[in-house]
Amino acid sequence: MATLKELASKEELFCGGHRLCAGCGIPPIMRTILKSAGAPVAVTTSTGCLEVGSTIYPYSAWRTPWIHSAFENAGATISGMEAAYTALKRKGKLPCGDKEIKFMAVGGDGGTYDIGFQALSGALERGHDFVYVCYDNGAYMNTGIQRSSATPMGSATTTSPAGSVIPGKQEYRKDLTRIVVAHGVKYVGQSSPHNWKDLAMKAEKAFAVKGPTFLNVISPCPLGWYTKSEVSMETAKVAVDTCFWPLYEVEEGVMKLNYKPKTKRPIEDWLKMQGRFKHLFKGDHTELIAKIQEGIDKDWQRLLDIDGKAIF
Questions:
Q1: What would the DSSP string read from start to end of 49-110?
Q2: What CATH code is assigned to 9-306?
Q3: How many Å apart are CA 102 and CA 43, to the nearest integer?
Q4: pLDDT surpasses 80 at 97
Q5: Residue range 2-34, pLDDT digits in tens
Q6: Which residues contact 120 (CB under 8 A, 6 or more apart)?
C-alpha cells in the first residue's frame, strides 16, 4: 500500500474548484479513493451533494469518464456500464484495446440506503464488477436536510424536527453495511476520511476484487450537522472513537475490526459537537441519550464477538 507521500503525489482525479461546502467530507473521500484505484476508473454518481456540487454545467471536477444517474438508479447505471465494457472487450471492439478499466458508483445515504437500494441490491446479486461508495452524512443534505434511514436517533432534521413533543428522529439508523454483507459479496469495508490509511487500504482492496464490492464512509456535513467547517475531521474521528461508526471490513466472509479504541468514548462526546443534537441537552432527555448509547454498545459488542470469524 502507498505511503501518504506517494498517495499525495498521484494524479488528482477529483480536482478543486467544485462547489461542495467548506469542511464537507466528500472531497477527501473521493480524492483518497480515486488515488487508490490502481487503474483508470469510470464513474457514475447519483443525484446528491456530490453530483450537484461537482458538475454544475459547463464545469466538472471529474478527471475521469463520468455519468450522472438519477437519485434511484446508480446501481443500474454502473451495471450497464460494466456489462457494455465486458461485452466489447470480449468481442475485441474496445477502442482502448485490452486496457483494464475499473468501475465505481457513488451515492449519498439518501440515494443508497433509501431511494437507490433496490438498484444497488440487484447489481450486487447479479455480480457486476464494480465498487459502490456511499458517503454517509446522515440525511438528505442536498435537498434541505430531511431525515433518511441513515439519520441517527435523536437527530433534528426538517422532517424529524425537535420540538416539545418529539425530540428528533425516534428510530435507530439502518445498518446498511451489515445488509450489504448479507448479499455475500467478496469485500465490504466501513471507513472514515479522518483515517486516510484505513480508507486508502480499503479502497485498494475493493478495486482489486473481481466482482461487486462496497465501501461505506462517514461524511461530515457542517451544513446538516451544524458544526464549524474546521472541525469536520475531528467529528469523524470522535464518531469512530465512540463506536458510533466502527472501522471494519468483511473479506471473503471473514469480519475484521480495523480499529479498537483504547478507551471507548461515550456517545455524548459526539452528540455535543453537533447542533443537530443540541436539543438533547436542554430539558430532560437522559433516557433518549441512554437509549442511543445502548444501541451503540449492543452493535459494538456484536462486532467484538465476531471479530476474526467467518460470518457467512
A1: HHHHHH--TT---BSS-EEEEPTT-HHHHHHHHHHHHHHHHHTT--TTTT---EEEEEEEHI
A2: 3.40.50.970
A3: 9
A4: no
A5: 899 999 999 999 999 999 999 999 999 999 999
A6: 74, 75, 105, 107, 112, 132, 180
pLDDT confidence bin for 283, thresholds 50/70/90: confident
Cβ atoms of 24 and 232 within 8 Å: the answer is yes
Q: Distance between CA atoms of 213 and 180, rounded to whole angstroms?
A: 9
Beta partners for residue 42, in sequence order: 103
The Cα–Cα gap between 2 and 150 comes to 32
Q: Domain residue spans in the chain?
A: 9-306
Q: What is the pTM of this model?
A: 0.97
All three cell numbers of 185: 459479496
146 has a pLDDT exceeding 90: yes
Q: What is the mean pLDDT of residues 212-226?
A: 98
For the segment 71-81, the average pLDDT, to the nearest whole number, is 97
* 67, 82, 135, 231 from 24: Cα distances, Å: 22, 29, 11, 10
Cβ-contact 123, 185 below 8 angstroms: no
Q: In whole angstroms, how large is the CA radius of gyration of the chain?
A: 19
Length, in residues, of the chain: 312
Are the beta carbons of 202 and 208 closer than 8 angstroms?
no
Question: What are the Cα distances from residue 174, in Å, to 6, 31, 54, 258, 287?
Answer: 36, 27, 28, 21, 21
pLDDT at 268 over 90: yes
